[in-house]
């Protein structure tokens, strides 16, 4: 993945899927590759074009993996609205979280990337969501994440707010407590699903 060897990556993933390898294990490996890719970009070894190519390979892999993530979604455990905050267009991680939540039986409404707080609020109202997930990858959009959390809180909606994204996993900001008003932080899609399950079970 980090070497952008599309042919090898796609072949390896296709074989893994065929042999029934664990989807989350495969995803973790891919994510590791993206980490290295990001580091090479940060070091000036890769250009933006290479970053974009990595994203494209990742997307192709997701197309192969997603059906196995989603196949065990049967009933609706709860409704989730998810999106990437304003100013940020990264969506690969958010899409994994959405797919895993769907696979665990949640009804997920993905509003996309670069979304202002008002659009989150509007969608939460429209679908009467139980949980909202906010994704953020850039240090420069952390303010946007904070604003979104506070606008949702000020709207008076009865909703659990989950935050996540590379900006946290990379350790730039340490923990969820840094964003006042959010109910929980998921470092990856598995944690996101666990939090969501915990919250809907706790609801009487
Ligand atoms: C791919 C990529 C891109 C692609 C994005 C394509 C797409 N459709 O998403 C493109 C090429 C468009 C891009 C653009 C840019 N990028 Co970029 N990008 C990356 C890269 C290499 C990988 C990100 C990724 O997808 N990782 C894989 C996914 C699976 O991981 P993830 O997002 O972390 O998601 C997991 C968890 O975080 C969590 N999670 C994610 N969302 C959520 C939500 C919730 C609710 C929960 C609970 C959990 C959760 O679960 C996921 C699955 O486990 C990172 C490097 C890195 N190490 O992150 C840089 C990186 C994020 N980008 C960076 C930069 C600087 C940019 C640009 C500004 C570059 C430029 N000069 O234009 C632009 C910004 C555009 C914008 N306005 O948003 C920097 C950010 C640095 C910083 N401190 O802010 C990074 C870190 C690279 C670097 N080391 O310099 N980028």
Distance between the termini: 45 Å
CATH class of the largest domain: Alpha Beta
What are the low-pLDDT stretches, counting only 5+ consecutive residues below 50? none
Domains (count) = 2
Quaternary structure of the protein: single chain
Taking the sheet with the most strands, its summary is:
5 strands, parallel
Helix content: 40-55%
Q: Name the shape in a single word.
A: globular
Extended strand count: 5
Strand order of the largest sheet: 2-1-3-4-5
| Heterogens | cobalamin
Note the run of SSEs as H and E. HHHEHEHEHEHEH
How would you describe the overall organization of this protein?
The model has no long low-confidence stretch (mean pLDDT 87). 38% of the residues are buried. The protein contains 8 helices and 5 strands; from the N terminus they run H-H-H-E-H-E-H-E-H-E-H-E-H. The chain is of the alpha/beta class and 204 residues long. The longest helix has 23 residues, at 48-70. Helix 1 runs parallel beside helix 3 (48-70). It has helices at 6-18, 23-42, 48-70, 92-103, 117-127, 142-154, 166-169, 189-202, and strands at 79-84, 107-110, 131-135, 160-164, 184-186. The structure holds cobalamin. Cobalamin binds next to helix 2, helix 3, helix 4, strand 3 and strand 4.
